[in-house]
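Predict fold of Helix-turn-helix domain-containing protein; 330 aa.
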Amino acid sequence: MELVQTLPRCSRQSAVRTPTRELTRVDIALFNGFALPKVAAIIEIFQKANAFGASQQLHPRYDVSLLSAAGGRIASSSSVFVWTESVDSHQVTDDRHLLFIAGGAGVPHACRDERLSNWLRRRHPFSEIVHPIAEGRLLLEAAKLPSRYCALLYGDNETSDYYQVRALSEAPTEVATALRIVEEDMGLEVARHVAESVAPQQDMPWDMSVSRSGTPKVSEKIMASARWLEENVDQPVSIDAAAKVAAMSERNFLRRFKSEIGMTPSDYLLRARLNMSCRMLVESRLPVDKIARRCGIGSGGQLAKLFRKYLATTPTDYRMGREASPAEQA
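Predicted 3D structure, encoded as tokens:
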């Protein structure tokens, strides 16, 4: 079991708060093969918070930097390239620092990058929060460093011990961490506004994530495997690999997953991929074929076949229908 550190409990802020001019530097460590969607969500949350600050004639509160061992162009697992700064060129300042560490299929290779591990060891003591995203925790383990979460995320009964130890299963998601940081800095109403603008609530046909709903009847091992399936929708996934996440034999895993979640792992993965494709159709202007590949479905033709089977429509028509106004849909 991985152990993590939590910081002293922060005082909960009121819904109305006057933001200060203090700058927070948000560093996101990347590597080839990192998982893009969750990194993008973190960036957008802090950018939206900055936009709100600008509307109040304040300086930006959050300075987000994308970092990698050597700097330059880094490819995500979905073949989207981003530009990064070298970790060696990025200096610690007197500002508040937060560190997020990306997850994704490229983690095993990144764990062997001594330059990245050494930088993590140097940066860790200066970072108020050190939040690994999914497999990103393996990078911290390789560097023999603990995760560090803000105790505010653990509820009202949290103790104030500086190094309160928590199991990994209790760790907050990276999106929850980012939103709670905004809430702590700028107030609850601002955080709600940012959350809604980043991820507006829309009913998706397959929005059935067990890992997010926290269904009581689902065991932690099966929950972990469901979460892993959702995080790897853009990758080739085998039942054997999912069973290893749950630390079970393949036969026992298939039986337990179906019993606890109500569908097979393959069906759950397909629904997660279709749910992601629905969201990307609504929230992006990417061509259908690219969306299909980024959701692990293979091609636009295969995605269209699945849409016709399960929704009796095409991806293009689904997108157009969701873009229509309520009056037009009536």
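Confidence is low (pLDDT under 50) at residues 5-21, 152-170, 211-215, 325-330.
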